[in-house]
Specification:
The chain is built from nine helices and ten strands. The chain has 248 residues and is α/β, with parallel strands linked by helices. The structure holds adenosine-5'-diphosphate. The site of adenosine-5'-diphosphate (ADP) has 11 residues, from strand 2 and helix 1.
Length: 248
């Protein structure tokens, strides 16, 4: 699949919870093949932005367009991956059933699986190397395995855009390496990756672009340039003297 020309455009996006402002005047464009890190101190608006992009919050001001259509009309093409949490109590469900859920937006109202739905599910399980654990319950998995399951669900959905909320949190070193490779492979195969992220020292290794938020937009651009920006350094380092401890 090559969707390199498929673009996400945000123009002057603001969002308030009641009278509390979470985001003000966010504008940027990214396209398939890119990996965008959302950076900013706690409470900066990263999750709010992800939820707006996922169509889980209604837009209030400005526009969020995917391929020139409002994102909430393009939900089949945009997949939201939940945070992994090994201690979360999941509904008992097997890996292959979670992946198969990616086909739901493609099914008719009878929800009957066709051969194409089975094939896409099997292909996603194979791509994310989940064959040996496809019959395991999701809550028996490690954080890295859960992450791969959710990515496989997004692949089964045939989503072009993957939104991830702090995907590297709670993973061991090996799983972080695998996830980083998976994100690279996904963009090579034409996906757009957008992830909130906390580990400042590896942004330029993992992501091509970065958006720095602190309610307003502090910086946006190619990751190496953004990370050199003095305003960015001030925003990301001064507010969070303990971030380095969280990384270790
Ligand atoms: P981040 O993900 O960067 O930590 P959030 O998007 O979660 O930031 O939060 C942005 C701001 O909006 C914060 O000030 C937070 O307290 C506020 N906020 C987030 N969710 C809600 C909510 N459901 N109701 C009211 N305020 C909220």
């Amino acid at each position: 699949m090559n969707h390199a020309h498929h673009q996400l455009d945000l123009t002057n996006v603001s969002f308030h919870y009641g009278n509390k402002e979470a985001l003000r005047a966010i504008s940027f464009s990214v396209h398939c093949g890119q990996r965008l890190a959302l950076l900013g101190p706690n409470g900066a608006g990263k999750s709010t932005l992800i939820r707006l992009l996922a169509g889980l919050l209604p837009p209030q001001t400005g526009s969020l367009l995917w391929r020139e259509r409002p994102v909430n009309q393009a939900r089949r093409e945009i997949a939201y991956l939940p945070q992994v949490d090994r201690h979360q109590r999941h509904f008992p469900i097997r890996v292959r059933d979670v992946v198969a859920m990616g086909r739901f937006p493609h099914l008719g109202h009878l929800r009957r699986f066709r051969p194409i739905d089975r094939a896409k599910t099997a292909e996603a399980i194979e791509t994310m190397n989940l064959g040996s654990i496809a019959d395991h319950q999701i809550d028996q998995l490690s954080g890295g395995q859960q992450q791969r399951t959710y990515i496989a669900r997004a692949l089964a959905q045939e989503a072009h855009v993957l939104l991830l909320d702090e995907p590297f949190n709670g993973l061991d070193v090996e799983s972080r390496c695998h996830l980083s490779e998976s994100l690279f492979d996904l963009t090579q195969s034409g996906h757009l990756i957008i992830a909130s992220h906390h580990q400042l020292e590896n942004v330029t290794q993992i992501f091509t672009h970065a958006l720095v938020l602190d309610h307003t937009q502090i910086a946006f651009g190619q990751a190496p340039e953004v990370m050199m920006d003095e305003n960015v350094k001030a925003t990301l380092h001064s507010c969070h003297p303990h971030d380095h401890e969280r990384v270790l």
